[in-house]
Amino acid sequence: MDLSPLPCDSAFMEYAITLIQKKVAKDVEKALLTTLASNRCSSTLYPHQEVRNRQLSICSF
Less packed terminus of the chain by CB within 10 Å, N or C? Predict the structure, then answer.
């Protein structure tokens, strides 16, 4: 069994799950999938979200 690490940090994954649950626009969903596929998904790349006390706060945009 291959136990490769996920290409994303946990904050980004929480953010992605929240977007999916909110049923975002198709272009946002496509951008999210492209980011996941490119292995460049880190919460530090997204300045509109803040990580505090190990909890993710997502700002509206």
Answer: N
